[in-house]
Amino acid sequence: MSLVPKYLSFLRDPVDLGSLSIEGDHLRGETSGLRYGFMGNVADLRPDAGTTAVIPESIHNRVRDHYDETPCNNYMDLDNLPLGRWLRDSKYDYLFARSDTVIEVGCGKGAIVQAFKEHRGITPFGIDLAYGSIRQIQRAPLNADGVLGSNLKLPVADEVADIVISHGVTHHTPDPMRCFMELVRILKPGGKMLYAVYNWDNLYRSLYFALSPPLKAVQHVFGKKVGDRVLKFTVFPPYHLALWATLGFVQGKWRFPAIEPSWEQFGDFFLTPIARFYHANELQTLADLFGLKILEQETGGWPKNGFSHFVWYEKPLK
Q1: What are 20's strand-pairing partners?
Q2: E strands along the chain, which residues?
Q3: What are the alphabetically sorted keywords of the record (predicted)?
Q4: Beta strands 35-36; 26-29: pairing state
């Protein structure tokens, strides 16, 4: 609760974007009258948190539950990503010139928070559906702040962020266009957005569509707890070996990866409720639809064609 007053200037009621006020041990929407509680010291500003309307079988809530249980581990190596150059090279200082308010939507285990903090001295404010992810970024050495929220109804006022980060998130969202609209909405005129999504022209797309349905069927038939055990003793060991080889050949890291983060990555790749893949021209189409300018665009993260698209958008001044 002690951290909340610091951010009330831009946090909003996710239902109607009205202002929030502190009322005892809750936050209260000043126009909706809805009350939002806390999980530990994390404000719960997800759209259904202030109401009794919960739809547990919705795809959005399944995504939340998946990443709450297993936050996405990321074997991200900045040397293998355009993001590494953007963060380290002074040539790209212009991307970070305005950074008073930086918001990351979808935090995972904090890889992007860590990279921004180490290389640019910027600690993003995090918003995530999953409590586990916010707890990850709160811990040392990241020591970032954040709230629970949905990228389909961000609990943030219009045009408040100098930089918005959405790295590897929209492709797990049931309504990616609505998500993109929300990201643009909270971005200041003249602000910049770092946006990364899966690349259509990559081997992973074929693997996902071939393997994900039968693997999820195992969970459905046996139940999640037993199904996960079946997968851990059958399909996961070959994946773990493949990950070791990939990290060795791509990143030069031949040390055998730990089991738990490897399992988390396996879940993110093949057990995630939804994954979408994008052509490069779709990212230009998004820019055209929302009147944005593309400042930088590359692929990276894999030896051939690039695992993901990485784009910097700029919102024009009014």
Answers
A1: 29
A2: 20-23, 26-29, 35-36, 38-39, 42-43, 102-105, 125-128, 146-148, 161-167, 187-198, 293-300, 308-314
A3: Methyltransferase, Transferase
A4: antiparallel
Flag whether the pTM goes above 0.85: yes
DSSP-derived secondary structure for 206-231: HHHHHHHHHHHHHHHHH-HHHHHHHH
Domains annotated for the chain, with CATH where assigned, are 4-57 (no CATH), 78-200+277-314 (3.40.50.150), 203-271 (no CATH)
Long-range contacts at 98-101 (CB < 8 A, ≥ 24 apart): 98/162, 98/163, 98/188, 98/190, 98/191, 98/192, 99/162, 99/163, 100/162, 101/10, 101/125, 101/160, 101/161, 101/162, 101/163, 101/188
Task: From 52, 64, 50, 51, select the one nearest 20 (Cα to Cα).
Answer: 50
pLDDT tens digits along 13-35: 999 999 999 988 889 999 999 99
- Which 8-state DSSP code applies to residue 200? S
Residue-level pLDDT at 197: 97
Bigger pLDDT: 248 vs 267: 267
pLDDT in tens, 128-184: 998 889 999 999 999 999 999 999 999 999 999 999 999 999 999 989 999 999 999
**What pLDDT digit, counting tens, does each position of 191-229 carry?**
999 999 999 999 899 999 999 999 999 999 999 999 999
Question: Helix crossing, 259-266 with 236-251: angle to 10°?
Answer: 100
Cα–Cα distance between 74 and 259 in angstroms, integer?
13
Closest to 113 in 3D by CA, of 139, 150, 149: 139
